[in-house]
Recover the amino acids of this structure.
């Protein structure tokens, strides 16, 4: 404790008196001045270490380029009080609500788990699992997963499907679909019972990536193959047609369905010409044709045997599954979903502010790219070296670009700190780390090429 106190006092004395910086100064014959430290000085080269633009770098000069080196102590300057910087965008996450008390009901009950918004951001497997765990404690008659989602990250689907599989035998799980597209549609297939509202849309599950500017980009066939397999797994868990699941992803598929006299529905690959009506069976109907992703209305989902019925509200659903008069089993799932919406909204506001600043800094960095064709350079063909004015222009643009890249890198660092407050977005933090590394590498390249002598090196 005593040693720590001495250190604090010593630091206070230094701050009050100023800071003495021991450094060397190197001047070049073309007028440049560098402050730093001489690492090596010989007959053939001078290696000088400087700290610029957030990076320590070593520069090598030929002796004939150096006008002079001054060693010693730079004049001590008093340290000015540091004004507090403007706080970076921060996020305030509201406290998570407490779970409501467990209540025993004298009627059949339904427990609601919201599945609303984009998969992988608003819908996460961690919350789905916590909701099921809460439902187990409350013992509802039915758990309703309320699907109202445009899809999202396919990487999250395998986790969501695994959670549903884990609880399928322990709870009666019913998918209630208002809208389920792409990743949401595939996830819902893991539920053994599927009911839909009259205006529901279901399917269209092709996979794509987004570019840095948010535009869709096709994924490789290898990735698509894995995604189709994941869809088949989900359908198998829920006891549904794997061909229907795959047709939501693969536009090359062609399917028909036939309702037999006993009510069974047969799904077959191929068109009407392939699957002609046979004795004892009804006429086959087209489910999907080549060139179209399978996307179904509520009535079509039921007609092809994928869904159990079309209902308009909980009351009608209760009648449909012989649980007339059921009541809601109040649980923690709805509160958790609302809490996550608020936390995500706060995060998105903060990250958007940083994103605007990041884009501005990157735009400035690109505008000052010394290699852009818009910047004219003159060089001597015989030696391959820049003319003096062109060398200064190159260094000036390099310096500015390095500064703007450093600012962009700091934006990413702030964003990472922000994301780390939300462990649910760990994958986002990993992506940001990769982006920060990429920008850092670009900045190091700019700095290392700052003293380029000509177009060829």
């Amino acid at each position: 404790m005593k040693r720590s106190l001495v250190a604090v006092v010593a630091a206070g004395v230094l701050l009050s008196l100023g800071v003495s910086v021991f450094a060397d100064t190197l001047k070049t014959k073309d007028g440049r001045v560098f402050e730093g430290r001489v690492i090596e000085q010989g007959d053939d080269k001078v290696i000088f270490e400087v700290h610029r633009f957030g990076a320590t770098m070593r520069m090598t000069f030929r002796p004939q380029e150096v006008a002079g080196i001054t060693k010693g102590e730079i004049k001590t300057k008093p340290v000015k009080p540091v004004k507090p910087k403007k706080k970076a965008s921060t996020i305030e996450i509201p406290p998570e609500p407490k779970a409501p008390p467990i209540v025993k009901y004298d009627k059949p009950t339904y427990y609601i788990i919201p599945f609303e918004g984009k998969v992988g951001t608003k819908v996460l497997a961690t919350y789905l699992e916590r909701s099921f765990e809460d439902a187990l404690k409350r013992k509802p008659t039915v758990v309703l997963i309320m699907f109202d989602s445009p899809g999202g990250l396919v990487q999250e689907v395998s986790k969501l499907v695994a959670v549903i599989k884990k609880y399928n035998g322990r709870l009666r799980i019913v998918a209630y679909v208002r809208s389920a597209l792409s990743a949401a549609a595939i996830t819902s297939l893991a539920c053994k019972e599927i009911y839909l509202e009259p205006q529901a849309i279901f399917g269209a599950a092709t996979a794509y990536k987004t570019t840095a500017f948010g535009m869709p980009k096709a994924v490789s066939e290898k990735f698509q193959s894995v995604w189709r397999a994941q869809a088949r797994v989900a359908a198998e868990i829920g006891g549904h047609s794997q061909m229907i699941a795959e047709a939501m992803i693969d536009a090359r598929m062609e399917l028909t369905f036939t309702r037999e006299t006993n009510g069974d529905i047969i799904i077959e690959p191929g068109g009407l010409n392939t699957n002609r009506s046979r004795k004892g069976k009804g006429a086959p109907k087209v489910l999907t044709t080549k060139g179209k992703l399978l996307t179904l209305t509520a009535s079509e989902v039921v007609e092809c045997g994928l869904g159990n019925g079309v209902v308009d509200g909980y009351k009608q659903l209760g009648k449909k599954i012989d649980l007339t008069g059921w009541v809601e089993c109040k649980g923690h799932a709805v509160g958790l979903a609302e809490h996550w919406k608020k936390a995500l909204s706060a995060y998105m506001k903060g990250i958007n502010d940083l994103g605007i600043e990041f884009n501005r800094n990157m735009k400035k960095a690109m505008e000052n790219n010394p290699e852009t064709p818009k910047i004219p350079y003159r060089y001597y063909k015989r030696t391959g070296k820049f003319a003096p004015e062109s060398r200064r222009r190159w260094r000036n643009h390099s310096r500015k670009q390095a500064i703007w890249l450093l600012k962009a890198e700091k934006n990413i660092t702030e964003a990472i700190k922000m994301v780390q407050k939300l462990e649910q977005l760990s994958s986002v933090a990993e992506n940001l780390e990769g982006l920060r590394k990429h920008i850092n590498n670009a900045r190091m390249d700019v700095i290392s090429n700052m003293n380029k002598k000509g177009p060829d090196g």
